[in-house]
TrEMBL record:
Domain Radical SAM core: 119-354
Domain of life: Archaea
Keyword Kinase appears in the UniProt entry: no
InterPro entries: Elp3/MiaA/NifB-like_rSAM, Methylthiotransferase, Methylthiotransferase_CS, Methylthiotransferase_N, Methylthiotransferase_N_sf, MiaB-like_arc_euk, rSAM, rSAM_horseshoe
CDD domains the UniProt entry points to: Radical_SAM
Compositionally biased intervals (Acidic residues): 415-433
Residue ranges of the region described as Disordered: 412-440
Record's cofactor remark: Binds 1 or 2 [4Fe-4S] cluster. One cluster is coordinated with 3 cysteines and an exchangeable S-adenosyl-L-methionine.
Residue stretches making up the MTTase N-terminal domain: 2-109
The name this protein goes by in its record: tRNA-t(6)A37 methylthiotransferase
Tagged with keyword RNA-binding: no
Named cofactor requirement(s): [4Fe-4S] cluster
Residue ranges occupied by any TRAM domain in the UniProt entry: 353-417
Amino acid sequence: MATYHIETYGCSSNRGESREIERALRDGGHRPADGPEDADVAILNTCTVVEKTERNMLRRAEELEAETAELVVTGCMALAQGEAFEEADVDAEILHWDEVPSHVLNGECPTVTPDAEPVLDGVVGILPIARGCMSNCSYCITKFATGRVDSPSVETNVEKARALVHAGAKEIRVTGQDTGVYGWDKGDRKLPELLDRICDIDGEFRVRLGMANPGGIHGIHEELADVFARNEELYDFIHAPVQSGSDDVLEDMRRQHRVEKFREVVATFDDRLDHWTLSTDFIVGFPTESEADHERSMDLLTEVRPEKINVTRFSKRPGTDAADMKGLGGTVKKERSKAMSELKMEVVGEAYESMVGETFEVLVVEEGTGDSVKCRDGAYRQIIVQKATERGVDVGDFLEVEVTGHNTVYAFGDPVDEGDDGEGGPVEGDDPAESAASSA
């Protein structure tokens, strides 16, 4: 029997894969160590979204190599840029995530079984419904790691979801590199059917749909919006990264949508749902982005007013076509990023300010800083409840809260059955901001 230490960086898919690795190692008789220095093997599940992240991954790999007997590196950076670790003189095995258990187990018994415990993190169940995507974006390095989409059957994913609910999951996060193209590789778009089937599982829980590219969901956006409208288990939340408000830039990015398709998706959800949260992403400073293109992105952000916005300054990723394009100056990218980030805070702050004084049913999904908990309303907006122990509020609870204040990107709320104690907003000494940010 060996001991292991695992660290995970990046998106929900990476976290789900790490849980699968841990499940397999536990089934094989291995156990977690107290830290890397006590482990027989350390596993680093990497992310490679931007250059800064890449540098952090290399630095952490160097630290782990010095602290543990053996290092295994997996995840997106390992698969897309495995040579970077060798160039940095990091002595590690570079493996696909599903190769990690067999490498660590080294043929030992008992063998890994496919029907082991579900992937569960607190009351949050992470359900990767497929791996890979159908896109070929010119700036993306992750595609080198994940490949084309590979979709298990609806029944397989429903059974995994049912196991999560039976194991105590109150929130199921449906994840993938692009959930909108689930089933495309099998010749049929299966996401609406899958979500309907998951919502039919017995139990009290919520479902959050992960990132879906506008081009992937456009062909099913009306059917998908109807699924949201008829299933209260689904958070009314869509993460559809538009990336630019300019069709010329989208063409150079090789995105599978244009701005009008994105608008049509938004309009359909506006029509079907009383209130919902749009989450989207913008890449600022793409090599071919002109000042006019940037203004089109700013105008689109102002027009659709998403309640969650990720702004990323373009960085060249090795091996991608965009890396060979003549880039914009750092000052230009910095100025455009600053302008969009300021607009983002204005738009998001306005959305959360509009919640003050309203009452919402929420699910308590996890602990925050101090004695606070993080909750999600029906549109997946984040509401912080403070002094949770005193108020008898626990992770996994469903409750009604009145929003008493906000801090731009999240709100504060009090349980309504307590009455108004005049203490809405942040409690002195607490700083929930550092743990309030959520993943898409």
